[in-house]
Design a protein that fits this description.
The structure holds 2 protein chains of 2 kinds. Chain A has a domain at 43-77. Helices cover 45% and strands 0% of the residues of chain A. Chain A contains 3 helices and no strands. By secondary structure, chain B is an alpha+beta fold. Chain B has a single domain, classed as Alpha-Beta Plaits, CATH 3.30.70. Chain B has helices at residues 18-27, 62-66, 92-96, 132-138, 150-153, 165-179, 188-192, 196-207; strands spanning 4-8, 37-41, 49-53, 72-74, 80-82, 106-107, 112-113, 160-164. Classes of the chains: A mainly alpha, B alpha+beta. The interface between A and B is large, with 35 and 46 residues.
Chain lengths: 77, 208
């Protein structure tokens, strides 16, 4: 084989190798882990500007609101 | 704090659909999606019963069990929420839910099913509290404001109760004990008057 032919073969091999690189098999499906929440994390309802992390204050607010639904207590006898 | 629950008193529900309207307005729920609805049994017949239904925030939620992408989670308060960024809109949760809570917005000429939408117990979702993203995807986060779901809070007859399961159960137990059963539950005095004993006592005091 002549030197020219060898060089051509070498160039062709390199071109084919580079060209086929795009055809590489990559994982395209997200692998989900069953049984565990996979999404974004959520904060606590008292971790905001209104309650500034005060869980007790938040619970008291919810409790008071809950009792507002009881008309026997809300409306005085 | 116990788990957040809804309880609908079918003896009080008057099918006004106020809860449905309040939910739609508060959360700006898209057209065609009903996070809450009122179901009436024996409609038009004497003794018909109505009950307001939405996601019941099950302790062992079947929607969570069947979700192929695990986009559901329980908050510490027992509210069942999901991440809309992960939802693929497959509809499995709709088949699994005994209350028909999961809803899907339909869009486009062929009615393409969008991402699942359901009652959030007015607790928003996995986004920054009170952010625009949270409101757009999940609606208002009243729980983070120290408030209960609007459907329950604005119910005119207080048929729909929401909040801490223990508190809700106590309110209902107290109510059921006072109102009695059967014929005792009917009439103007029962609906708007005071308990018989107390009314009589006050009248006597007033006269004396």
């Amino acid at each position: 084989m002549s030197r020219f032919a060898m060089l051509t073969m070498l160039i062709l091999t390199a071109v084919v190798a580079l060209g086929l690189q795009a055809c590489g098999e990559k994982e395209q499906v997200i692998v989900y882990k069953q049984g565990n929440y996979q999404g974004k994390s959520d904060g606590k309802p008292w971790e905001n500007a209104t309650f500034a992390g005060d869980q007790a204050k938040w619970e008291n607010s919810i409790r008071a609101r809950g009792q507002n639904q009881n008309e026997y207590k809300r409306i005085a006898d | 704090m116990a788990r957040m629950k809804f309880l609908c008193d079918s003896e009080r529900c008057i099918e006004c659909n106020g809860c449905v309207t309040a939910c739609k307005n508060e959360n700006e729920v898209p057209w065609g999606v009903n996070r809450r609805r009122v179901v009436t049994l024996g409609d038009g017949l004497p003794g018909e019963k109505s009950v307001s239904v939405a996601c019941m925030h099950c302790s062992d939620a079947p929607c969570m069990a069947v979700c192929p992408v695990d986009c559901f989670y329980h908050t510490d308060e027992g509210v069942v929420l999901h991440d809309k960024d992960m939802c693929i809109g497959c509809g499995y949760c709709f088949y699994a839910c005994p209350f028909g809570a999961p809803q899907y917005p339909q869009s486009g000429a062929f009615g393409v099913r969008g991402k699942m939408d359901k009652c959030t117990f007015c607790a928003g979702g996995p986004e920054v509290d009170h952010s625009e993203e949270e409101f757009k995807k999940y609606g208002r986060n009243r729980l983070a404001e120290g408030k209960l779901p609007l459907c329950a809070e604005m119910c005119s007859t207080k048929a729909l109760l929401g909040g801490d399961g223990d508190v809700v159960a106590d309110i209902f137990r107290d109510r059921a004990t006072r109102r009695g059963k059967g014929g005792e539950m009917w009439g103007w005095g029962t609906a708007y008057g005071k308990p018989v004993g107390k009314q009589a006592g006050k009248t006597a005091e007033g006269k004396s």
